[in-house]
Structures are given as structure tokens and as C-alpha cells.
Write a structure and sequence with these properties.
The chain is of the alpha/beta class. The protein has a single domain, classed as TIM Barrel. It has 10 helices and 10 strands. An 8-stranded parallel β-sheet has the order 3-4-5-6-7-8-9-10. Strands 1-2 form a two-stranded antiparallel ribbon.
Length: 301
């Protein structure tokens, strides 16, 4: 496994972690997948109170102290006391005393960001979380949150980013690289869209490059992301086989020519987010609350 530093901390992060969105269909299989990923070096698991997967993650990491656990507080829980209560509930479901990375799942412009971040910093002081991150924040929203911090850094921003969904490259990625903020890429394989007939030619090109490295198209698609500074990826840990394949992407070092070939192929496949700014493709603009907060049923990843 390859590692990078988390933000400006000295914390070493594996470049491949595991996502747990839409967990719960087959708990035994999901726990086995997480355990296999941990053993293979993907010792970074991302979950959220919204996902309903914290309990499953807790079972997979029980008795282990070598796994970096990230969770998220939902946007309807960003009042000061709500943040504290949500964290306590997540800790209980996870069965741990401290969450390594606690993230704001979405921005909520109806609640002062200073109020939310005050609670997040209190959680650090109490030892309930180690690092503070955000998710689905634009560069502007990230800096607004950073400007109200009193003594802690925002170390990461988790957004949708893949070979098919490249909106992060329109300013956010460059900002994160400049500020040494880790960009955590969710849905790094385009939520399965890469394997549809629409992208057959792209998949063929990725497969051809993969053959040179003795790797699969999936691994090349992940390696394309990992070639970017400050980026780690959290593909969903769907099965033991998929997890092992995903971890193998960390071994690939794509050449300049190979990256150029991939970039030339994917220019025709640009995908805009449904709701630019906060959701970055995770929720439908027709299913928002009156305050602009995504409803739980609208989140897709």
C-alpha cells in the first residue's frame, strides 16, 4: 500500500480506503469485505450516520486499533448540541472511543458555520474525534469553514471524483493541493457507470493500459485518480474480490503518455453535478428542503 499525509498533519493515510454507502444488504459479506481490505492494507474506512453502516463497520474493526475510521454528521444535525449528540451516537454504533476523522456530510447555509465548527473543535478537545473534515464543500465553502476555526485545521474535503466525474478539477482540486488539504474521492469508479456500454471505448483503452502493468481497467481508473497530488480514493467495499482488486491500484504508476491517453479519451465524457456547490452530484435538485439541505432520501452515495 502507498501512503500520503493527511492534510498538514503527520498522519499517514493509505491512498486506497473503503466506502460503505448502501451497506446492509448482506452484513456477513460486507464485514468479510472490510476485514479483507484491512488485511490487504486499506486501513481507512469511511462511513456516516446517514449510511446506517456504522454498526457494520464497528463489527469489522472490533478488537483492532490499526484502522483509521472516518464518519460524518448529517447536514440537519449541524447545530452545536446536535453535532455533539450525533458524534456520541456514532461512537456508540462504531464501538470506539475516538473517531479519527469526523466530517460535515454537507454544508447547511441555514446554520452559522461558526456554530458548527465550535462544536467540532470541542469534540477534538474532548478526545472524541482526532481530525476535522468536510464533505461536498466547494472551495469557497471550505475556506469559509476554515476562517472560523480557533485552533484546529480542516484536513480534508470528501467529494465525488472519478474518471467520469471531474468537477473537482474545476477549482477545488487545485485549491486543496495549494492548501495541503486531502481530497477524498468518493464514487471513484463512477458508481458503476464505467462498465456500461456508453463507456465501452474508454474501458477498452483502460484495459489496454492495464495489460502493460498486469492490472485491470478498474485498477487503472483508480490509478488515474491516485496520480493526482493530495488525492485518496474510497471505492465501496462490495466484496472481498473487489476490495483486493481496488487495493492493487496503489501499485500502479502511470506514465505521462498513459495519463495523456486517458485524458484524451475522457474529455468527451464530462459529467456535470446535479446541484453544483454542495451536493456535487449526490442529490437531486428536486428533492431539497426549503433551506437547501439535502433530504436523506435524496443522497445517492
Amino acid at each position: 500500500m502507498r501512503y500520503i499525509e493527511l492534510g498538514r498533519t503527520k498522519e499517514k493515510m493509505p491512498v486506497i480506503g473503503m466506502g460503505t454507502w448502501k451497506y446492509g444488504a448482506d452484513e456477513k459479506r460486507e464485514i468479510e469485505a472490510l476485514e479483507a481490505g484491512i488485511d490487504a492494507g486499506a486501513k481507512f474506512i469511511d462511513t456516516a450516520e446517514l449510511y446506517g453502516s456504522e454498526g457494520i463497520v464497528g463489527k469489522a474493526i472490533k478488537g483492532r486499533d490499526d484502522v483509521f475510521v472516518a464518519s460524518k454528521v448529517f447536514s440537519s444535525h449541524l447545530r452545536h448540541d446536535d453535532v455533539l449528540a450525533a458524534c456520541d451516537a456514532s461512537l456508540k454504533r462504531l464501538g470506539i472511543k475516538t473517531i479519527d476523522l469526523y466530517q460535515l456530510h454537507f454544508p447547511n447555509h441555514s446554520i452559522p458555520i461558526s456554530e458548527t465548527m465550535s462544536a467540532m473543535e470541542l469534540l477534538v478537545k474532548q478526545g472524541k474525534i482526532r481530525y476535522i473534515g468536510v464533505s461536498n464543500f466547494s472551495a469557497r465553502e471550505l475556506e469559509e469553514a476554515r476562517s472560523v476555526m480557533k485552533g484546529n485545521e480542516i484536513v480534508s474535503d470528501q467529494v465525488e471524483f472519478s474518471i467520469l466525474t471531474r468537477d473537482a478539477e474545476k477549482g477545488l482540486l487545485g485549491h486543496c493541493q495549494k492548501e495541503k488539504t486531502t481530497l477524498i474521492a468518493y464514487s471513484p469508479l463512477g458508481s458503476g457507470a464505467l462498465y456500461t456500454p456508453k463507456y465501452a471505448k474508454l474501458l477498452e483503452a483502460l484495459s489496454a493500459i492495464g495489460k502493460v502493468h498486469g492490472k485491470t481497467a478498474t485498477q487503472v481508473a483508480l490509478a488515474w485518480l491516485l496520480a493526482k497530488e493530495e488525492v485518496v480514493a474510497i471505492p465501496k467495499a462490495a466484496s472481498k474480490e473487489h476490495v483486493i482488486e481496488n487495493v492493487g491500484a496503489a501499485e500502479i504508476k502511470l506514465s505521462t503518455d498513459e495519463l495523456g491517453t486517458i485524458n484524451a479519451m475522457i474529455r468527451r465524457y464530462s459529467k456535470a453535478p446535479v446541484w453544483p456547490g454542495a451536493c456535487s452530484g449526490r442529490c437531486s435538485s428536486t428533492r431539497l428542503s426549503g433551506t437547501g439541505v439535502p433530504r436523506p432520501g435524496s443522497v445517492t452515495g
